[in-house]
Design brief:
With 126 residues, the protein is mainly beta. It has a single domain (21-119), classed as SOR catalytic domain (Immunoglobulin-like), CATH 2.60.40.730. Helices cover 14% and strands 45% of the residues. The protein contains 1 helix and 8 strands. The chain has one helix at residues 2-19, and strands spanning 24-28, 32-33, 37-46, 56-63, 66-72, 84-92, 96-104, 113-119. The strands form 2 sheets. The chain has a 5-stranded mixed beta sheet with strand order 2-8-7-4-5, with no helix packed on it. A 3-stranded antiparallel beta sheet has the order 1-3-6, with no helix packed on it. It is elongated. 18% of the residues are buried.
């Protein structure tokens, strides 16, 4: 009986590890805006596993390499779900590169997501 319980525990651990993954993010943002326009960025975070032992530990968003959002999590302060979003309001004055990256406390990151927001050219009135 003891061996059966050990086998079940090992199989459970292997199965949950196989189901786990690195934290991945995607960015929802407009492709073009008018200079000075305020936009809302949506950072989507995806990660299989959200327990006190395995969770997304950090998500960081940057605009032109300047941090614009950072969310840190812990075993006692985990994300609300495996998949979640965060929103950032940002005023765009010039072409802006947005990057975002999340990290799992065990498996790390699937790598940064990147998008570029361009400025619409204004027509000249003659």
């Amino acid at each position: 009986m003891k061996r059966i319980i050990q086998l079940i525990l090992i199989l459970t651990a292997l199965t949950s590890s196989a189901m786990a993954n690195k934290t991945a993010v995607s960015i929802m943002a407009p492709e073009k805006v008018k200079a000075g326009e305020e936009i809302t960025l949506v950072i989507k975070v995806n990660h299989r596993g959200n327990s006190r032992f395995h969770f997304t530990k950090k998500v960081v968003a940057r605009a032109n390499k300047q941090e614009i959002g950072c969310w840190e999590f812990s075993a006692s302060n985990r994300p609300e779900a495996e998949n979640f979003t965060r929103e950032i309001k940002l005023k765009i004055e010039r072409e802006t590169e947005i990057t975002a990256e999340g990290s799992c406390n065990i498996h790390g990151s699937a790598g940064p997501a990147k998008t570029i927001i361009k400025i619409e050219k204004q027509e000249r009135i003659q």
